[in-house]
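Researcher: I'd like a candidate sequence for this fold, 183 residues long. If you have to choose between options at a position, lean toward the conservative one.
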């Protein structure tokens, strides 16, 4: 079972990736379920986790902000620099988890932000190096050059992934029943 910190990080990553169209809403619901299993709890998280795949496309937009807020997590606007950096960090963690290849990470970052996001300029440069190799390179051993670029991308991904979301020290304690009125 993942720790509450890991589950919160994954939920926040999936939230920002969903907000920019990288993943479907059902992946956010799956992360909410995983967060509950890991010990995170809030009324909004329970409602989000209860969505079916069919409901996810319609309901995540309304349910996600409240669920994250109850857990002390933030969903930055995707158009702002903080949101862009959150997307880059989430993509880097996906690459480190083996869900993306190094060249896929650089390609997505370069396509999305180019050289405009200071945090990811090196990844954009490395994407250009991949393209250079693909179109004939400079005569160096292609396999050796590819391995060098992959290693640099991995190092950059580790640097980006080092920042985690703020997570409550302990799971949120939420009453499971409604208190009765006292006259």
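Model: Candidate sequence:
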């Amino acid at each position: 079972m993942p720790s509450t910190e890991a589950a919160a990080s994954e939920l926040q990553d999936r939230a920002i990736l969903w907000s920019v169209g990288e993943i479907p809403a059902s992946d956010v619901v799956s992360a909410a379920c995983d967060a509950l299993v890991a010990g995170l709890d809030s009324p909004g998280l329970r409602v989000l986790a209860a969505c079916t795949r069919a409901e996810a496309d319609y309901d995540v937009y309304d349910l996600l902000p409240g669920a994250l807020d109850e857990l002390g997590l933030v969903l930055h606007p995707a158009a702002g620099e903080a949101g862009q950096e959150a997307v880059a960090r989430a993509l880097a963690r996906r690459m480190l988890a083996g869900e993306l290849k190094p060249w896929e990470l650089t390609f997505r970052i370069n396509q999305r932000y180019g050289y405009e996001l200071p945090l990811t300029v090196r990844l954009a440069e490395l994407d250009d190096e991949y393209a250079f190799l693909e179109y004939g390179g400079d005569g160096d051993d292609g396999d050796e050059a590819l391995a060098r670029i992959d290693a640099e991308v991995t190092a950059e991904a580790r640097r980006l992934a080092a920042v985690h979301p703020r997570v409550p020290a302990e799971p949120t304690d939420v009453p499971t029943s409604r208190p009765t009125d006292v006259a």
